[in-house]
Specification:
- The protein is α/β, with parallel strands linked by helices.
- It has one domain.
- It is globular, with a radius of gyration of 12 Å.
- 24% of the residues are buried.
Length: 94
């Protein structure tokens, strides 16, 4: 998924919802982003509290990032983000 597509989709949801990455049977909090090699990488943590939707959108919403694909840290390697769902007042990316 491109960054601009993710921004447009997340704009319709509550600003205070937590942003998490859902991987198999666990949820990882998105705590920051890292941009290099023309891609956006989501940094995750099991211990820290995740970013809220408005904070996440603030980090992503830069014109130079719009065409970059979005990846997240999987258990073994980086995986590309393909979509998300909403559950328990959280935005679960996957």
């Amino acid at each position: 998924m491109r960054t601009i597509d993710l921004i447009l989709l997340l704009n319709d949801f509550k600003k205070n919802s937590r942003v998490m990455v859902e991987e198999k049977d666990k949820r990882l909090a998105v705590v920051d982003i890292d941009v290099h090699d023309e891609a956006v990488y989501l940094k995750t943590s099991e211990k820290l509290r995740g970013l809220q939707n408005w904070e996440f959108l603030l980090l992503l919403n830069k014109k130079e990032y719009y065409t970059f694909p979005v990846f997240y840290e999987g258990t073994k390697k980086h995986q590309q983000l393909f979509g998300f769902r909403v559950a328990d007042d959280c935005l679960l990316l996957g």
